[in-house]
Amino acid sequence: MFSDRIGVNVVNKKEINQKTEQKIIEVATEMFAKKGFEGTGIREICKGAEVNTCLVSYYFGGKKELYEKIVANIVEKVINYMKSSMGFNEIPTSFDHLTKQERIDFLFKAMNFILDYFYSYKISDSEIMIFFREQITSGTPLNAIGYNIFRKLLASILEKDENDKEVIFRCITIVGAIHSARVFKQFSLNMMGQEQYSHEDTLLFKDIVISQIKAILKDIGAL
């Protein structure tokens, strides 16, 4: 009987710890998104999460480690979704075994994955802000693995080296088009007089982006 109570207490304490840790992460993600790393303080994070300041050190080690945990979580979400939605056990590093048409088909499958991920709200607005802030400040995209796959794939379709400037710029152009409606979300919604994108909006945007990518590929003779 006594040992049963101990077991229940341990489970309850673990659940409380997990909820507290998650609450800190959620509040910190919103604040880092709005103010950036330098502009966000531990005290205001803890005030928003309604926890003692010492808990950030207890769970994460400090503000830097907390931020790195949030960034790592975003990367992990992207990679796990990529693997599950595209049927990867391991991320592909080469497309040499595919025909040109198979590479093009794979490209559009990848585009569908990215569009579904960003516009089904599997990633929050705050995570999106951190996502793009990191690209601006560090020069490294949080989904660097995804970018590298896409660049290799595009290079193989264009029959160019993946470090060729045309490949890099076309990759940036296509990815930028995909991200644009999340980057300019509030601007777009204000123009449409809406509070959120509807399912029909995301389908329309998806069709537009895919059409643009097809036009680019036709322009360079890949289609």
Radius of gyration: 21 Å
**What is the level 1 CATH name of the largest domain?**
Mainly Alpha
Shape: globular
Provide the β-strand percentage band. under 5%
What is the CATH topology of the largest domain?
A: Tetracycline Repressor, domain 2
Number of strands: 0
Mean pLDDT: 81
What is the number of helices?
Answer: 10
The sequence of SSEs as H and E is: HHHHHHHHHH
Class by SSE composition = mainly alpha
N- to C-terminal separation?
72 Å
Tell me about the biggest sheet?
none
In terms of quaternary structure, what is this? single chain
Helix share, percent: over 70%
The CATH superfamily label of the largest domain reads Tetracycline Repressor, domain 2
- Count of discrete structural domains: 2
User: Which regions are unreliable across 5 or more consecutive residues at pLDDT < 50?
Assistant: 4-11
CATH architecture of the largest domain: Orthogonal Bundle
